[in-house]
Design goal:
This protein has about 450 residues and is of the alpha+beta class. Among the domains are: about 170 residues, Beta Polymerase, domain 2, CATH 3.30.460; about 110 residues, cca-adding enzyme, domain 2 (Orthogonal Bundle). The chain is about 45% helix and about 10% strand. It contains 22 helices and 13 strands.
Length: about 450
């Protein structure tokens, strides 16, 4: 590895370089790219200006540039620079270095609900699997081996550490899709494009940079990102990008459950949840006889990857449609509410079995919730607020049946009462409970 790294510094071609070409720098002026400066985030521009004033290169990068080119105000703004994380941190009053696999800096503005995070990454070098240190296990089982390593992969070629800095041209080549590999200089209003990303954005095409099979092996989550972008943007996967997807799906088994869970949440909160499910089915990520990529979706969908018939499917469809509408209207969405809807009928089935076995109503429900968390969510259920909110929504449901004494008064004072009531309303709208119950509480 050391010899290859020295060769790289001396400019000698790396083995396999032809499979992942560096591309060619093209600078696109404002009159061609047409980005509206009014869509920019002033804090992201401030981060860029602070870095360039300190003598560094800095650009808005990735999905934000893609969205700006499409005339959409980005939800998040990321910045890429040739400054190291330590150098970035030293330039801002509230900046925090995070991550092990991929070290970045969070520059924070504001406090509380109004706070904003600008994510700043350092340009990465383009290193092949052969350049990396290889470890036998994964993130959890090989922690000691990974200590001090800047670039490491597991036995399947999945990247576990990616912290070797390099020039912008290499940083662009190691990104996933051409439309996500563009850089925007807000001060000169210039787009830098190495891989034809602007043309692909206009053609609504998702094209992988480099050899797709290798790129999926490096990070199998790119498969899910392809689904998300295709559904969210209405893009088609380019033929060579699509071809290895189904064969690469088993690689997702090596990805930590927490990361897969987070990617599933992102997928269902794009504003195109139902389209995302259709893409997952098309690519073989769900509908595999209960052995798909996501345990939560296995609980929700049929063996063919479809929403079930009847009330159960109607309930989830309506919940996802409501989520899509909220996203498209620019309103906030709660992942806990969405997940509570998706797993509700499995909770119900187990709740009924526990009651039939002689358990009282409330303990039977609590046991059912624990069982579903263990089966479908795993140790993620212990990650604080998300699981607590889901549990509270479910535990409220039998309390809505009790309308005497002080019970109703104590229930409406619960912090999550509104979410519990909205859940009850959704159940009534699909005929699971009487609408008269909703009317009473309203």
């Amino acid at each position: 590895m050391i010899k290859k790294f020295i060769d790289k510094l001396l400019g000698k071609p790396a083995s396999g370089a032809g499979k992942n070409p560096l591309g060619q720098r093209v600078e696109i002026p404002a009159e061609v790219h047409g980005i509206d400066p009014e869509l920019l985030d002033e804090r992201a521009v401030k981060v860029v200006r602070t870095l360039t004033d300190a003598g560094f290169e800095a650009y808005i990068v990735g999905g934000a540039v893609r969205d700006l080119l499409l005339g959409v105000r980005p939800k998040d703004f990321d910045v890429a620079t040739n400054a190291t994380p330590e150098q970035v941190k030293g330039l801002f009053r509230r900046a925090f270095i995070i991550g092990r696999r991929f070290r970045i800096v969070h520059v924070v503005y504001g406090r509380g609900r109004e706070h904003e995070v600008i994510e700043v990454s350092t340009f990465r070098a383009l290193l092949t699997e052969a350049d990396a240190d290889s470890v036998a296990g994964n993130e959890k089982t090989s922690k000691r081996e990974l200590e001090g390593k800047a670039h490491a992969v597991d036995a399947s070629g999945r990247v576990l550490r990616d912290n070797v800095w390099g020039p912008q041209i290499e940083d662009a080549a190691r990104r996933d899709f051409t439309v996500n590999a563009m850089y925007y200089d807000p001060q000169r209003q210039l787009v830098v494009d190495y891989h034809g990303g602007l043309a692909d954005a206009k053609a609504k095409l998702l094209r992988m940079i480099g050899d797709p099979e290798t790129r999926y092996r490096e990070d199998p989550v790119r498969i899910i990102r392809a689904v998300r972008f295709a559904a969210k943007l209405g893009f088609e996967l380019e033929k060579k990008t699509l071809a290895p997807v189904k064969g690469s799906v088993p690689l997702l088994a090596n990805v930590p459950a927490s990361r897969l869970f987070d990617e599933m949440i992102k997928l269902l909160q794009t504003g195109h949840a139902l389209a995302s499910l259709a893409q997952l089915k098309k690519l073989g990520l769900v509908g595999q006889g209960g052995k798909g990529a996501f345990a939560v979706l296995d609980a929700l969908l049929t063996d063919t990857g479809d929403l079930p018939a009847g009330v159960r499917g109607q309930f989830v469809r309506q919940a996802l449609e409501d989520t899509d509408r909220r996203v498209q209207d620019g309103r906030g969405v709660s992942p806990s509410f969405m997940l509570a809807c998706m797993l509700w009928h499995e909770v119900q089935e187990r709740w009924l079995k526990n009651r039939e076995a002689g358990e009282p109503t409330v303990p039977a429900l609590a046991q059912a919730i624990d069982t579903v968390f263990d089966a479908r969510v795993g140790d993620i259920s212990g990650r604080g607020k998300l699981a607590a909110d889901m549990r509270e929504i479910w535990m409220m449901q039998p309390r809505f049946d009790r309308r005497t004494g002080n019970g109703p008064f104590s229930l409406v004072e619960q912090p999550r009462y509104r979410a519990g009531f909205d859940f009850l309303l959704l159940r009534a709208e699909v005929g699971e409970v009487e609408m008269s119950l909703v009317d009473w509480w309203e």
